[in-house]
Specification:
By secondary structure, the protein is of the alpha/beta class. The protein has 22 helices and 11 strands. A 6-stranded mixed β-sheet has the order 1-2-11-10-8-9, sandwiched between helices. Bound molecules: 6-O-phosphono-beta-D-fructofuranose.
Length: about 525
């Protein structure tokens, strides 16, 4: 057994879980009218109601004891001080510094702020030039469309945030996001675009990612097919990368290469120059507000006592269900269509960060780590998988995310939407038991007592979205500290990349097929039509 699972704090939580098996959420609310106030807090424009969880003061105390046992306070200080929190790649994790201001930081980190400020100034200048039409395409026409070519962290953050904010903030230039190696992604995007007025951003931290380079090369060819001049490439391609020299070698003009440092992880990079499509699509001031909202959450996280610290409490409640109630799934349901890409964004953030079973010191964990994160927007999801949430065998904790003011004039839509959101968390909690005289009583039985958090934003703005993302970033980090894993590396995705190269060479007839298994060879034969 590991030190963690042997610890008194862990074992106390196991005992608490035994005790809480008799706990009823409905009874807890009936017995205590102050429960909703007791288990709620506000930070950075976000209201969190965590009262519909299997918690009471003793459980919370035991969870806080676990945080203390695992050195969460020290771990947060290490993040804040810029220590190496990613030892397998020997890097600090300074994504939060991108939204910091002078005086927010400790020690030497202040010295990085001028460099960060210069890149922001460049983003501001160039995005202004594109929006106002001072910067134009090769044939002198102003840009109307931007296509961001990137994948993973070089796609999900800006794509999700653009989707969320575009109704409110549109600066006039339409943004599109192409990620998939499947050519349909690029082709569908390009079919409506004019090469004369299209600007591409090749976004890749490493500038070696196969999908991104393949799409970028095809996009380049599309441009050249129409403009018929190699020189056009320099006017229509920007790059964002922590390997600027590779971007320049690919053919991107020096002043259109936007760098960021390797201490910004891909899935934490929306705050860096990876946010360039947001600067162009929403306007630079909106990007600054986005950073400011995240900064407000950072200040709350770095300074609040754990008993009222939103990311820490969300993390501990997640640990409670993953490790002590053995819930291996967690659903994220935004009740706002603008946030429909948010579950996908969180999938990378949380599962690429904490989907590991090796501790930071290289030991196998003997406890589970990150649950599977998934979700879709409500109310659509009610008509697809909510059946399972209500009556399926697993207990799946849910985060409901709702926006009070929908930002549109259709009041009745919004009232129905929010009523549905609240109805779902209440129904999950209450369940249903009909009288035995009802012939369908067994089929209609709903166990209830199923937990959820509800997060409310007053409005969906760049600032509240920034705070929401930062909340989940910090939650993810705190969980990694409890599980004693490195949240900032991703070795598990590398092997698949290597094997895909081997298979491609076999597919092309140059690789050694004897290294392949019979299933892969049979599938290859079918694909090639030789079987
Ligand atoms: O394959 C996983 C990954 O490395 C992610 O961590 C990253 O966000 C994505 O690929 C894209 O990488 P890059 O920005 O270097 O192209």
């Amino acid at each position: 057994m590991s030190e963690l699972t042997q610890s008194a704090a862990w074992q106390r939580l196991q005992q608490q879980q035994q005790r809480m098996q008799a706990f009823s959420l409905a009874d807890a609310f009936a017995a205590d009218h102050g429960r909703a106030d007791q288990y709620a807090l506000s930070a950075a424009g976000i209201y969190l109601d965590f009262s519909k969880n299997h918690i009471d003061p003793t459980v919370l105390d035991a969870l806080l004891e676990l945080a203390s046992h695992c050195g969460v306070k020290h771990g947060i200080e290490r993040l804040y001080n810029g220590d190496i929190v990613n030892p397998s790649e020997e890097r600090p994790a300074l994504h939060w510094l991108l939204r910091a201001q002078a005086g927010d930081t400790a020690g030497e980190l202040d010295k990085l702020l001028p460099e960060i400020g210069e890149i922001k100034q460049h983003l501001d200048d160039v995005s202004q030039q594109v929006i106002t039409g001072r910067l134009r395409g090769y044939t002198g026409k102003p840009f109307t469309d931007v296509v961001n070519i990137g994948i993973g962290g070089s796609d999900l953050g800006p794509a999700m945030a653009y989707q969320a904010l575009r109704n409110e903030q549109l600066a006039g230039i339409r943004c599109h996001f192409v990620a998939n190696m499947c050519a349909h992604d690029l082709l569908e995007t390009l079919q409506d675009l004019d090469p004369h007025t299209t600007l591409f951003i090749v976004a890749s931290k490493s500038f070696t990612t196969l999908e991104t380079l393949q799409n970028a090369n095809t996009a380049k060819q599309w441009l050249l097919d129409s403009l018929q001049d190699e020189n056009a490439v320099a006017s229509h391609f920007f790059a964002v990368s922590s390997k600027p020299e590779l971007a320049r070698r690919w053919g991107i003009r020096e002043e259109f290469v936007f760098p960021f440092r390797d201490w910004v992880g891909g899935r934490y990079s929306v705050w860096s120059a990876i946010g360039l499509p947001l600067c162009i699509g929403l306007g630079y001031p909106a990007f600054e507000q986005f950073l400011a909202g995240a900064r407000a959450m950072d200040r709350h996280f770095f300074s609040s006592d754990f008993s009222v610290n939103m990311p820490v409490l969300l993390a501990l409640i997640g640990i409670w269900y993953s490790n002590f109630w053995h819930c291996d799934q967690h659903a994220i349901i935004p009740y706002d269509n603008r946030l429909r890409r948010f579950p996908a964004y969180l999938q990378q953030l949380m599962m690429e960060s904490n989907g590991k079973s090796c501790t930071i010191n290289g030991q196998r964990t003997d406890y589970t780590t990150c649950p599977a994160i998934w979700g879709e927007p409500g109310s659509n999801a009610q008509h697809s998988f909510f059946q399972l949430l209500h009556q399926g065998s697993p207990m799946i904790p849910v985060d409901f995310i709702a926006v009070c003011d929908g930002g549109h004039p259709h009041h009745e839509h919004q009232q129905w939407l929010l009523s549905n959101c609240l109805a779902q968390s209440r129904t999950l909690m209450l369940g249903q038991q009909l009288a035995g005289t009802d012939p369908l009583a067994a089929h209609k039985f709903m166990p209830g007592n199923r937990p959820s958090n509800t997060l409310l934003l007053q409005q969906l703005t760049p600032a509240t979205l920034g705070a929401l993302i930062a909340l989940y970033e910090h939650k993810t980090y705190v969980q990694s500290l409890i599980w004693n894993i490195n949240a900032f590396d991703q070795w598990g995705v590398e092997l698949g990349k290597t094997i895909s190269r081997q298979i491609k060479s076999v597919m092309e007839g140059t690789g050694d097929s004897r290294t392949m298994d019979s299933s892969t060879m049979a599938l290859l034969a079918r694909i090639r039509g030789t079987n």
